[in-house]
Every structure is written in C-alpha cells, then in structure tokens.
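Sync notes, pocket subgroup
Present: LS, DG
LS reminded everyone that the earlier model was apo-only. Rerun requested with magnesium ion included. Inputs:
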Amino acid sequence: MPDEFDLIAQLRQRAETRAPVEIGIGDDAAVLHHPHPTREVVTTDMLMDGVDFRWGEAPPELIGRKCLAVNLSDLAAMGARPTAAFVSVALPRTFPGQQIERMFQGLFDLAEEFEVVIAGGDTNSWDGPLVVSITAMGDVTEHGAVLRSGARPGDSIYVTGACGGSLQGRHLTFTPRVREALWLQHQFPLHAMIDISDGFAADLHHILDESGVGAIISGEIVPVHADIPSDWSAEQRLTAALSDGEDFELLFTTPVSDLPNSCLNAHPQTPITKVGVVTAEPGCWLRSESSGLAPLPKLGWKHALG
Ligand SMILES: [Mg+2]
C-alpha cells in the first residue's frame, strides 16, 4: 500500500474546493462557510469488506463508488442537496497501492458527478479488512427536510425505479436518487421519504412506525426489477422485490395521487410508480387479486452478502 502521506497528497490534489468548503484536505480540520443561514443534513455510513462488498470480487472503483453512493442516497432521502464528504479508511497493509488508488478513483468520480467536495477524512492501515466510513453533508432546500415521520392518512405511496435482485451487482453500480429527490421535492409536497436499503417492506415499516399510520400496498403494481430471474413464479419475484434490499430507490408519500410516471429531470428518466395508500389504522397490508388482503411483514435484508 502507498505511504499515508503520499496518499493524502494525491487525494488533496484530486479534491476540489467549492462552497461551502473554504479549507478542505491538508490542514488539521476543514473550514466550511455558509453565506446564508441554512439547515444542513449530516449522515454517516460505514462499509466493511465482507459485509457491504467483497474486495477482490468487484473492481475497486465500484467499491469506492458504493461507499459514497450510499451516503448520497441517505441525503437524497432527506431531500438534501449534497455538498461535502469526509472519508475515513482503514486500509489493509497487504493491499497494493494501485488498487487503493482505483478505489479512490471511483469515489472521486462519483463525487464530481454530484458536485460533492471531498473535504477531509483520515487514512490508517492495519491488519484487518478494509473499512470505509464516510460522513456526508447536504443543504436542506427551501422546502425543508423530508422525514420518515410525515406520512398522513390518505397519502399515496410511490417508489422510484424497480426493486429486488440488487445483489446481482446493482448494489455496487446504482445511481443515488439525488436529482430525483430534489426534483420531486421542488414540484410536489412530499410528506415522508426513505431510501430503500433494508428492503421495500422493512423500509416502508420504518415510515409507518415513525408516522403512526398504516398502509395498503398493491402487490401486482410493485415494480419488480429485471435483475430478478424471469423464470421465478410471480410470487417469488414479488417477495424478492419486497425484501431483497440495497435497491437505493426512494420510497415516499405525498397527498398528490396522480404524480407523473417518471422523474423528468433524470437521464434516462427514472420511473415513478404509485404502489399504495397510507391508512389511519396502523398495520401494513399487501393486496393481491389472488389472495385479497394479507399482512405485509417487515421482511428485510439483514446486512449480509448472500
Ligand atoms: Mg437511509
């Protein structure tokens, strides 16, 4: 692996400085400046080799990319515009320097795509596996932060994209729904939002629990991703879509019952599907033509690669 100071010098060269970051990598700490009073969202996600990715089974660029992408997805779920990120890594001593550089390459490429300044962090080496912890910040727009707790009876429930089968590879390559979140929030009143990391059903339950409401989901309408094998039964495919996790799509509620069926600001346009309604009575139900109403339990992915 490269000398720590060489690595920091390389990262410093690569990092841009843009508002709100006044002083980024290279001093004892970063300096941020907000010209106007603003609310900020801060999120942290720590990813570990063997849990969130497997080093050696995926290109290092994609591993670095994912470590930042999951953080941007959380900012998107809050309706925030990403600004800066702080990257801390525990690097295995045995890793070749070139592969570590490739990991940072993937991370910086995504940062540039979303105009996120890598403003600092920490690099350490040890005899354990790779650990990457990123803290990301974003500005709340004039519409405010979108919380999990805002769902109201009568709201429609929507999801972006399609769900399931992410561990086939999409969990490393997904595009965080930042543009979609900002566009939606600008156009429509969003009551509650979450990004799907644990799984559609588990994350829906997070919204329902926090909001003190229930929901009815239309099983036939839930968008099933093409990554789920087409020769599975319809029921198996739906179960995978509802439980697989790591989709990093947005699940949200709004009083608007006729949203457009795609986000018009993304290229290619990201589908939006109305999958259900929020009810006053607590409880989560799946409606299907074949079996009527059945409880939709908190199925979910338990943070372990298959
Ligand atoms: Mg989240």
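DG: The helical segments are 4-14, 60-77, 97-113, 170-173, 178-187, 200-211, 234-243.
LS: The two ends are 29 Å apart (CA to CA).
Action: DG to write up.
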